[in-house]
Write a structure and sequence with these properties.
- This protein has 111 residues and is of the alpha+beta class.
- The protein has one domain: NE0471 N-terminal domain-like.
- It contains three helices and eight strands.
- The protein is globular, with a radius of gyration of 17 Å.
Length: 111
């Protein structure tokens, strides 16, 4: 359902989805927007990397209560992010890469 909040931002819900390829879904939103999203680029890091297992990825389902696609492990993506995917995907990929890069700590000198 299209909603507005105090500053007139639009909120969207995913109302339908179907498989289009290995990690690709077709999504339909409550404003009749349709989007095909390849999730492969964001499936990295300690949490989202688990969905590289195609069987786990295919356990996606539509949660009508929160209006988005959900996966096992309580994984979901804000439906507004999905609706405006091209505006967000580069940032998400960058964050996933940061999460999967080990953090180096400086060596501590022994006394």
């Amino acid at each position: 359902m299209l909603q507005t909040i105090g500053y007139a931002a639009e909120l969207f819900d995913v109302v339908a989805f179907t498989w289009k390829g290995e990690y690709t879904l077709w999504l339909k939103f409550d404003d009749n927007t349709e989007r095909i999203i390849d999730f492969a680029p964001i499936l990295s890091g300690p949490v989202w990397g688990t969905l590289r297992d195609i069987n786990l990825f295919r356990e996606a389902r539509l949660d009508e209560e929160i209006g988005t696609i959900v996966w096992p492990g309580d994984l979901d993506i804000d439906p507004n992010v999905l609706h405006d995917w091209p505006e967000h995907v580069a940032y998400i990929v960058e964050k996933r890469e940061q999460q999967s890069t080990p953090v180096r700590t400086p060596a501590v000198a022994e006394m």
